Structures are given as structure tokens and as C-alpha cells.
Amino acid sequence: MNKLLIALIAGTFASVAAAQTAAPAAPAAPAAAPATKAEVRKEKQATVESTTKAATAQEVTKDAAGSAAAAKTKAAPKQLTDKGSKQKAVASTTEAAAMANTTAADAAKAKANVAATKNDPKAVKPDMKSPETQKAMQKAATP
């Protein structure tokens, strides 16, 4: 049984390792090498310029989208304009947070539970010294 478990674990590790190895790449066609250093520099400059242009184009579109969104939010009317409505909003949020996250909610729940259980009738405890109770206990204990 132990050998079987060891074989299963080893097989699992082997399959995971095989799945993670990279597939062999197809051999690329050899490119013609530039003849001089000047040609190499020109090719590098061309690639740098193309990537720079692409990056700046993306940044410009992001900036334009961000400024359009900012313009929309600035034009929207404010929701809480007077001081009283702001105070009411803050008070309600604070109260809701206090009831949800602190022990105030637990205390309120405990108080409600105590009030509910006070109305329940209490069970009468048997008098263990009376002979009738002792006989009833013996009778219940014998098979």
C-alpha cells in the first residue's frame, strides 16, 4: 500500500514537471546581419522610436479619457448642499457602523435575549432530601 502511494505521488510530480516545461521553439530563420555599426544604430533607433510613439499614444488616450470623466463629475450637482443634511448623513453612517462593527450591537442583542428569557417559567427543582424523590430516582436508575 505504501509503495502504491509513493508511486502515485511520484507520478503526479513527474506529470506536473512535464506540464511546466516549455515547448521547444521552432528554429528561426537566420536574419541578415547589418554590415556596419551605423546600420545597427539606425535599426535600434527605429525600434526605440516606434515603441516610444506607441507608448505616448496610449498615454494621450488615457489622459483624454480621464479629463473627460473629471469634467462630467465636476458638472454634476452636489448632493449635500446644506450643513444640516451633511450632519444627518454623517450621524446615520456613524450609527450604522457602530451597530455593525462594535460591541454595542452585541450588547443590544444580549439585552433582547435577557428580556425574552425572563418571561419563561423556571423549572421546579426536585427536593433531593424527600424520600419520594429518592425512590423515584432509584426506580429510574434500575434497569
The H-and-E topology, N to C, reads as HHHHH
> What fraction of residues sit in β-strands?
under 5%
Name the assembly state: single chain
Write down how many β-strands occur, each being a DSSP E stretch of 2 or more residues: 0
Shape: flat
The largest sheet, given as strand count, sense and whether it forms a barrel, is: none
Number of helices: 5
Helix content: over 70%
Strand pairing plus helix content: what structural class? mainly alpha
Q: Rounded to an integer, what's the Rg over CA atoms?
A: 40 Å
Explained architecture:
This protein has 143 residues and is mainly alpha-helical. 73% of the residues lie in helices and 0% in strands. It contains five helices and no strands. The protein has helices at residues 2-20, 37-75, 83-101, 103-118, 131-141. The longest helix has 39 residues, at 37-75. The mean pLDDT is 76.
